[in-house]
Write a structure and sequence with these properties.
The chain is mainly α. It is 66% helix and 5% strand. Strands 2-3-4-1-5 form a five-stranded parallel beta sheet, with helices on both faces. Strands 6-7 form a two-stranded antiparallel sheet. The longest helix is centred in the C-terminal third of the chain and has 21 residues. The mean pLDDT is 90.
Length: 688
């Protein structure tokens, strides 16, 4: 960045470094001053009392935050009088002068932040810092937002506090690091009353947010749009890809000043978002709807938590049911988090049931959780939840609602594949009447189609598949259409129409891959492998087909594991997989099958789809020998470690569970003989 700014000053008369307090603007300006042969530095507090007439070369005007207005007039006068003058200004906000080049100063990267902490802590006498585990240092850096000022202050504390205690105390960073409180406090003081109110409102969000969202939470505080614009100008907020972002330090300062109603308005906003998504996802915009819901999942989780905290259990139950109804957790492969949220809501709700309405509502939530467990092959969990829902209704002599009926029947289809749920699903579909439950009705149609297929109702299988696809196409719903093709492919497979089944699932996979449907893509890889195995000996080269089918089965199995799915618990699909495995082994033998499984398991999503679609790509388990004997996935983890990511961040980046990342890191250390993440990062850098 220093070189970039230096080059800019060669032709730009005014460059302003902007950024939040403590981000290092003055440090960068001072470094540039040291590189200049003719430089003068003037602090903003002294600007109006300093005679700068006739000044040439480089003039650094530092800390202009309190004097932006007067500084603007001084800068205009100086530049007008001295064409050879170059001015480098630092401020939380731009000066808004013609010809001004604004350079936002970002926080340090995690790796730079760690290096700075080690350097400063060691210089301060905390010699153990350099030997600390990289993961510990990364957690500290993340808590400090990469702000050089915060890192410097924390390094000073490292002489008297062990790192684990230092990390724990950064939860109250303003008490631990007093100067940081003063620095962020100045930013707050420089804001207008409305800007301060919007700052407080924005601090409710756990991550990035939209203008619409903050306008809802900050309603009644004034012109929110103008305030947001002011906060962006003052470096309190930044904007990327249409969403606003806020450093954790800045968020924490605002959160300490919340009045309380902001959290409730935040909850209300996300409750409305879920309600609209759950009732309107079945249509042309469904992919955008599911993507938007997934993006808001951390804030949805916080909103549910707020409802539980204030005792509004019915509201919390409604929100988690609507979250599942949007299908976003399936689409994004985030069922682990949603299953845990359902568990928390149910556990908190059980002691609070007061009347029949509460009981019916809790039963619907339990059934929803049971359905989610069934989709993941969790027999015992699903059975326990569905039995509890049924008992709750039975004990109060309450009727079975459509959500409960759907969940019970859907679980029976997926776990056992019997004929029994066909009538129940038909009844549930009739109960889902009206536009508000159009998506629920269509999901029931999908499960009814799958039930018909798995039960072997040969006379109605093809017709059920066609009707399911017709409804999805009529609604113009791309995700629903892809799943209708998947169900039709299952019907064709069951009927022995293997070429048709292959064509349907191939088209389905293409659509799901483009949409980013992680759940659907995994199930289509599985289906394609099963169909290819069924086609062995029907004209294709059997050996080549068996290799490809085994590789794809390995790819699907690895992805099911990543998404927490136990296919062995999904009776009808486990039987299909077992038959496919047996047929593959007949052709290429057990050892070769296992090797192909391993190759597919290590594949990237892109390669898995290419192989599935018959596009050229190496399917060898070790097409290229990886250094240290690392798998492709372990190399992905090493790359992320070298980039300074924490284990939770790696989990998000690679779409795997945090526990899986922990396992990979341990395996990498064992294979490479390295003691910690710092050593792994160094190995990664030196390898290149």
């Amino acid at each position: 960045m220093v070189h970039q700014i230096g080059a800019l000053l060669q032709h730009a008369p005014l460059v302003t470094l902007t950024g939040s307090g403590g981000v290092g603007k003055s440090r960068i300006a001072a470094h540039l001053g040291e590189l200049s042969d003719d430089c003068r530095v003037v602090d903003g507090g002294d600007l109006l009392a300093t005679d700068l007439t006739g000044r040439r070369g480089l003039l650094i005007l530092d800390n202009l935050d309190r004097v932006v207005g007067p500084a603007r007039a001084v800068v205009l006068a100086l530049l007008g009088a001295e064409p050879e003058l170059r001015i480098l200004a630092t401020s939380r906000e731009r000066l808004n002068v013609d010809g001004e080049h604004v350079v936002p100063v970002p926080p340090l990267s995690t790796s730079d932040s760690v290096r700075l902490f080690i350097e400063l802590a060691t210089a301060a006498g905390a010699t153990t810092a350099a030997a600390a585990d990289l993961g510990t240092l990364e957690r500290l850096s993340r808590n400090l937002d990469g702000l050089p000022l915060a890192v410097k202050l924390a390094a000073g504390r490292a002489r008297t506090l062990p790192l684990d205690q230092l990390i724990a105390r950064t939860a109250d960073r303003f008490t631990l690091l007093g100067e940081l409180d003063d620095t962020v406090g100045l930013s707050y003081e420089l804001c207008t009353g409305t800007e301060q109110a919007v700052w407080r409102a924005a601090s409710v969000f756990t991550g990035s947010f939209t203008l619409e969202a903050v306008e809802h939470v900050a309603a009644g505080t004034g012109d929110v749009l103008d305030a947001v614009d002011g906060l962006v100008n003052k470096s309190v907020l930044t904007m990327h890809d249409g969403r606003f972002h806020m450093l954790g330090t800045v968020r924490g300062y605002g959160a300490r000043r919340l009045a309380g109603e902001e959290r409730t308005r935040h909850r209300d906003y996300h409750r409305g978002l879920l309600d609209r998504a759950a009732t309107g996802w079945f249509g042309p915009d469904e992919v955008a709807v599911m993507t938007a819901v997934h993006r808001e999942l951390p804030d949805i989780t916080a909103a549910v938590g707020h409802s539980l905290a204030i005792g509004d259990h019915r509201d919390a139950r409604r929100m988690v049911r609507d979250l599942v109804r949007t299908r976003a957790p399936f689409f994004s492969g985030s069922l682990d988090a949603v299953a845990e949220l359902l568990r928390q809501v149910i556990d908190a709700s059980v002691p609070t049931i007061r009347d029949d309405e509460d009981a019916a509502d809790l039963a619907a939530t339990m059934a929803t959780a049971g359905w989610v467990a069934a989709t993941r092959g969790r027999h015992r969990t699903s059975g326990t939840l569905l039995a509890a829902a049924h008992a709750l209704l039975h004990d109060r002599d309450l009727p079975i609602s459509a959500p409960v009926l759907f969940a019970e029947a859907g679980a029976e289809v997926l776990l056992h594949g019997t004929r029994k749920p066909i009538g129940q699903l038909a009844a549930a579909r009739e109960l889902f009447a009206g536009p508000q439950v159009a998506g629920d009705r269509h999901m029931t149609t999908m499960m009814l189609t799958i039930a018909t297929v798995l039960a072997g109702e040969s006379e109605t299988v093809a017709e059920a598949g066609r009707e399911h696809l017709r409804q999805a196409e009529e609604a113009g719903a791309p995700w629903a259409v892809s799943w209708a093709r998947w169900a039709s492919a299952q019907a064709a497979l069951r009927d022995g129409r293997l070429d048709e089944a292959l064509a349907l699932v191939t088209r389905c996979l293409r659509e799901q891959h483009v949409m980013g449907d992680r759940w659907g893509r995994t199930w289509s890889l599985e289906a394609l492998a099963v169909i290819l195995a069924a086609r062995l000996g029907t004209g294709d080269d059997a050996t080549a087909g068996a290799h490809r089918a085994a590789w794809l089965l390995g790819a699907a199995r690895a992805r099911h594991q990543q998404q927490g799915v136990t296919v062995a618990g999904l009776g009808p699909f486990a039987r299909l997989r077992d038959r496919a495995h047996a047929r593959i082994v007949e052709v290429i033998g057990e050892d070769t099958t296992v090797r192909e499984y391993a190759g597919g398991a290590k594949s990237t999503d892109a390669d898995a789809v290419r192989v599935a679609l018959g596009e050229p790509v190496s399917r060898r388990a070790s097409a290229k020998a990886n250094p240290g004997g690392l798998t492709n996935r372990e190399l992905d983890v090493v790359t992320c470690i070298a980039e300074g990511m924490t284990n939770p961040q790696i989990a998000v980046q690679l779409h795997i569970a945090p526990r899986t990342v922990d396992t990979h890191v341990l395996a990498i250390g064992r294979k490479l003989g390295l003691p910690n993440r710092v050593a792994i990062a160094v190995w990664a850098v030196t390898r290149h």
